[in-house]
Amino acid sequence: MSTIAERRDAGEFASEVHVYEPHKVGLPPLGAYLTQLWGRREFAVELARSDLRSKHYNTAFGQIWLILNPLLLGLVYFALVQIIGRRGGSMAALAHLLLALFTFRLVSTSISQGARSVVGGGRLILNTAFPRTLLPLSSVLTCFMLFLPTLGVYAIVHVAAGLPVRPEILWGIPIIATMVVFAAGVAMFVAAVQVYFRDLTSFLRYMLRIWLYLSPILWVAAQVPEKYKPLLYLNPLYPPLTALSEAVNLGITPPARLLLLSFAWAVAALVVGGLFFISREREFAVRL
Amino acid sequence: MSLLSASSNPAPAIAEPPVPATDWAVKVEHLVLTYKTTIEKKPTFKKALVRLGRRQRIVREIQAVRDVSFETPHGAVLGIIGVNGAGKSTLMRTVAGILPPTSGRIEVHGRVSTLLALGVGFKGDMSGRENVVLGGLAAGLTKEQLAQKYDEIAEFAELGDFMDMPMRTYSSGMFGRLAFSVAVNMEPDILLIDEALSVGDARFREKSFEKMRELCSSSSTILLVSHGLNAIRKLADEVLWLHQGEIAMRGEATEVIQAYKRFLDVRESDIADDDV
Question: Which of B23, B45, B123 is closest, CB to CB, to A8?
């Protein structure tokens, strides 16, 4: 066994030196923080994977449920819209509804699961020093993994509805990416707020439900009276959902205005949510 | 401090360790840690609104650590004792990098492994195996390193088939055994342990004791918080007695423990030594 002097001279202890000093303006040094966050990304991936496994999504029935559940939800809403609107249902309308609903659920489940992530990781937070942003980000990753199979369901409806298959559909990728980034920003924000107000998740459920009705999912922008149209832009999900519908459902290039707005909302949410979370995370260990 | 000066303790024996700076594993300089917390266990928006009407404030500022300085050389065991609320756990969390200092500076040389809370098992739905991997990844180990260590961890914890069962099926002793096993089997240069010796049955306690001795002989540094004065006496080279966030005394184990017991006004007995 090597002695302390030998180990010291071999530079073993110097390989890892941690210096802890007070945080300036409530934030840790961001460069070092982000390096550490990237270095431990494997934790977020493994947490998301284990989470899916613990919910039995790795079994055949689990995977069937994963597809069946959002599909049934989509059909319920579709029936509702048809009854209220007294319209004959078309496959194209179903395709619009399913795509918008599935992507909205990606955002809303990321936010609601993200909200629980920090409080749920209490013991780990009390024991280990690691960038806490990994917890809400892992929740977003879990929801993204759950979202992917629903794209398969959409693809079948898309083809069955006879909707065009054009290269413009690929615009869907950056649009969904902006939605994921937006969801991550909001998830970090609510995860931090949840530490201070543990009943946030109860309110969140209602807020997300209202948000669903206010987003172009059960309706399309064309149905909105002209004088109310400017109000649509107050909803951060209006630009990406409309752009997505144009690109994927209709196969046309979405207007640059919608794409830029989606991008701007995503960056704003990430910066505000991320900085708020990081500025509060040093308190989590004494608040949990 | 007034309490302490009123007791008949000898003068605090604060001696500088006779080692050059490069030999320090942990160096704490003028550490102050103040934090705000709520009195409520589960703060809610609803209660906050009600309080707003009554103009009540429930946020309390806690000065957990006040101007603490010490350093521990590589390979040494530092025992930390003190009454409940003395700031022991907060000090350990600051050294672990979990709580950033309000002022002062901490330098830690080497890989740190912690057992400050039962962090392994934070996901009750997941198996022991998954929790071990997650805890390790959060602590900064790679999957390869964890794969190498996994058998050792499982064997030490003696959980057998339970390793693949959800952790909500574990007893509290099993929880503790696994958490301890993870902390000590990560080949740490510095091990921070808070109250872990009371984990498991008598046999496992004996085994944890042996493991800590083994770690010491392989030149790991250990910071150990415990109310078990016997364990501290047997393991620690030096003992730090914290009182109300300040160092009340620091020095050789037997001497500090005796002074501490005089302060607590407990007689020599096995019960007192096992758990004061």
Answer: B23
Contact A282 B109 (CB under 8 A): no
Cβ of B23 and A128 within 8 Å? no
Q: Which residue has the tokens 């994963």?
A: A66
DSSP A58: T
Whole-number Å distance between alpha carbons of A142 and B276: 46
| Rounded CA separation B182/B150 (Å) | 9
CB atoms within 10 A of CB B229: 25
- pLDDT single digits (tens) B211-223: 888 888 887 899 9
pLDDT at B209: 85
- Which pLDDT value is given to residue A221? 84
Q: Which of B44, B111, B112 sits opposite A198 (nearest CB)?
A: B44
At which residue do the structure tokens 């002793």 appear?
A: B173
**CA-based nearest residue in chain A for residue B180:** A127
A-B contacts (CB, under 8 Å): 165
Query: Which of A165, A181, A161, A152 shows the shortest CA–CA distance to A240?
Result: A181
Cβ pair B35:A283 closer than 8 A:
yes
Q: Return the DSSP state at A20.
A: E
Residue B251: beta bridge partners? B239
- Six token digits for residue A222: 């064309």
Q: Which residues of A touch B135 (CB under 8 A)?
A: 124, 127-128
- Kindly list the residues from chain B whose CB atom is less than 8 angstroms away from the CB atom of residue A17: 107-109
Choose between B20 and B38: higher pLDDT: B38
Chain A residue numbers with beta carbons less than 8 Å from the beta carbon of B35 are 283, 286
Closest residue on chain A to B129 (Cα): A50
Nearest to residue B198, comparing CAs of B223, B230, B238? Answer: B230
pTM score > 0.95 for this model?
Answer: no
- Helix ranges (H only) for chain A are 4-9, 30-39, 41-54, 60-85, 91-120, 122-127, 134-160, 172-196, 200-214, 229-232, 238-244, 256-287
State whether residue A87 is helix, strand or coil. Answer: coil
List Cβ neighbours of B10 (8 Å cut-off, separation of 6 or more): B255, B259
- Looking at this predicted complex, what is its ipTM? 0.84
pLDDT in tens, A172-208: 999 999 999 999 999 999 999 999 999 999 999 999 9
**pLDDT for residue B85 is more than 80:** yes
The minimum CA-CA distance between A118 and chain B, rounded to whole Å, is 11
